[in-house]
Amino acid sequence: MQAQRNGDIRRYSELTEEAEAVAVKIELLEKEALNSSAS
């Protein structure tokens, strides 16, 4: 949020990309956990 407020568009874009990648990893881990507990 600070990068966006400071007008650092490049840094904001990098952080957004990283956050989206982390969200995808979390989603995959949650699916794996659900599949493991169902077995």
Share of residues in strands: under 5%
Structural class category: mainly alpha
* Major beta-sheet overview: none
Low-confidence stretches: none
What does it look like?
87% of the residues lie in helices and 0% in strands. It has one domain. It has 39 residues and is mainly α. The radius of gyration is 15 Å and the shape is rod-shaped. The chain is built from two helices and no strands.
Write the layout of secondary structure elements.
Elements: H1 2-5, H2 9-38
Name the features.
39 residues, rod-shaped, mainly alpha
Task: Briefly characterize the structure.
The protein is an all-alpha fold and 39 residues long. The protein has helices at residues 2-5, 9-38. Helices cover 87% and strands 0% of the residues.
